[in-house]
Design a protein that fits this description.
Keywords: Plasmid. About 35% of the residues lie in helices and about 20% in strands. With about 200 residues, the chain is α+β, with helices and mostly antiparallel strands.
Length: about 200
Amino acid sequence: MKGKIIKITVLVAMILIFVSALMYEVKHMPIHIKGNTGYKPVVMADGVKLSDDIFIAIDYDVCGYGPILECMPGKLIFYTNGDVILQFEGKNIYKENVKDFDKVMEQIDIEKLMTTDPESAIDALDGASWGYYFYDEEGEVVCRNVGYCPQNDAFREPCRILFRSINEDYFDSALENARRGYGRRKGIPYYKNRW
């Protein structure tokens, strides 16, 4: 009898967890606004408004295979004023400003990107997951769209647009230095793969 009660309790807990996760996903789905191109704040289904300051964030220099430190990504955060900040392990490690960032924002349909299927390559064995992050007015991530080895050009093109707007060499160098410093602090040897 005691074992049966435990099984029922576990089953009920699992159902409650599933329902709450499903409700969270539904609550954070964006409302579709026809004709929304470029940067126009989108109101989320639960009344949350996207940030006027943070345009978008994207995983940076992800790697699915190689030395552990080389597989630790950074995150690029693009602000509507043109500032771009590279974070590693939650700390800001590099910043630059993109001139005429308005022109970059005009090329990216945020609402569409929030729901574009990345078309993950589920048969790939050595790839990495990466994607986009969308923030609310409080600076919290309220929506993310991430895929494993995304294959969809409609998903990948905004990344290309964003990367063309920055000086990747500086960001790469800053991330590599941060990885080396992290390795020194943690006692992890660092070497960069030269494929």
